[in-house]
Amino acid sequence: MKRKKKHFLSRFTKSGFIFKVCGLFIRAFVALLFWTLRLEIRGLKALKEATKKNDRPPLIIAFWHNQLLLVAPLLNRMIHENSFTVLISNSRDGELPAAFAETYPQAEVLRVGHKGRVQALKESIKILLEKRILVITPDGPRGPCYMVKPGVIFSASKSRAVVFAMKWQATKCLHLNTWDKFCIPLPFSKVVVTISEPLQFTEDTPIEEAQEKLKSELGSS
Question: Which partner for 181 in 80, 110, 168, 175 could form a disulfide, CB atoms 3.0-4.6 Å apart?
Answer without folding.
Answer: 175
